[in-house]
Design brief:
Length: about 325
């Protein structure tokens, strides 16, 4: 089973990727949040740093682009290739209205003839490196997958990551795993399942239902439980000490790179996942003005039931 750490803009930067790899491991490929391509083709400072080989030393990473312009994509693939990468990803999944109203991300799923023309142009000449794609199963309705799937299958993508929701479904509510099953049945090359994998049991249920599953991408599940990939591979759950080390290393990395208030803001954003809807811990986290307070909110005092609920291992 290949495990991808999903790209999450504003969260999964180089510091998080490196600390995760060192402390927990289990992930094969770390995905970079998208580069929003522009006419000038100049990347933001943080994007340049995020993709730099120094930032990703020892890691297998997959850069990602958000664009509807084949020329921009070609130029970007050249620059990614020059940085030593052999594969990069195209974003057809971002559901943010600021992105979709410009016809980018999952906005490209709204007009399949335009998407087809775009992909025809992209693949009309040899690419410097291989290209993968990350998609939703539709913009408005899961029914759209019936047309999107054969369209994507026409092109030689290195792999196709399928977030089994429509764009309008954003990130919550029902998922449609049957869309992934259809991709397997129709012989789509290298499909990667994505959506709501939170425990090793979820992964087992997926592979039981779809025995052809060879690769999964996990995002929020790894924020909730950074040992999830390790556990999927039969390793131990995270100990309290490991979780403390995880949050402390992230905080220190972000504090050294940015400044204390930004580091605290980022750690709080990350901790929203393990804290969940627990009112008491949410309040503790909101009020915390130092890392120890945040860790206490995320892990509790150390008594029974205070660390992340242990979840079934496979
Ligand atoms: C805060 C946040 C930022 C995200 N940024 C990106 C991104 O830059 N590129 C992308 O393809 N998906 C992005 N996603 C979507 C995730 O990669 C993933 O597809 C989604 O969270 C579903 O997987 P999960 O249920 O395992 O979290 C983002 C999701 C979240 C919650």
């Amino acid at each position: 089973m290949i495990i991808y750490f999903a790209p999450m803009e504003g969260i999964t930067d180089g510091i998080l990727r490196r600390v995760h790899h060192e402390l927990f491991g289990g992930v094969d490929i770390y995905c970079l949040p998208f580069h929003k391509l522009t006419q000038t083709m100049s990347l933001l400072t943080r994007e340049k740093r995020d993709i730099s080989p120094e930032e990703n030393r020892g890691l297998h990473v997959l850069p990602q682009a958000l664009t509807r312009d084949p020329g921009q994509l070609h130029a970007w693939l050249q620059s990614v290739s020059a940085r030593g990468y052999s594969c990069a990803d195209l974003n057809l999944g971002c559901p943010s209205p600021t992105v979709t109203k410009r016809g980018r991300g999952s906005g490209m799923l709204r007009d399949l003839s335009a998407l087809r023309a775009f992909l025809d142009q992209v693949f009309s000449k040899p690419l410097p490196i291989s290209l993968s794609v990350k998609t939703r199963i539709g913009y408005e309705s899961p029914e759209e997958w019936q047309e999107i799937l054969p369209l994507l299958a026409r092109y030689p993508f290195a792999h196709v990551t399928i977030h089994v929701r429509t764009a309008l479904e954003q990130y919550t509510g029902a998922i449609h795993p049957e869309a992934f099953g259809l991709a397997l049945r129709q012989g789509l090359a290298h499909p990667v399942y994505n959506g709501d994998l939170r425990t090793p049991v979820d992964v087992r249920a997926l592979t039981d239902r779809f025995p052809g599953t060879k690769a999964v991408m996990i995002g929020r599940g790894l924020l909730f439980d950074p040992a999830l990939a390790r556990r999927i591979r039969g390793g131990p759950p995270a100990s309290r000490e490991e979780l403390q080390a995880w949050y402390t290393a992230l905080y220190e990395g972000w504090r050294d790179r940015f400044q204390e208030t930004i580091a605290l803001g980022r750690i709080k954003k990350l901790m929203e996942w393990p804290v969940g809807e627990d009112i008491k811990r949410k309040r503790l986290l909101r009020r915390a003005d130092h890392i120890e307070g945040c860790i206490e909110a995320a892990l509790g005092h150390g008594g029974e039931n205070s660390v992340l609920e242990p979840m079934n291992t496979m």
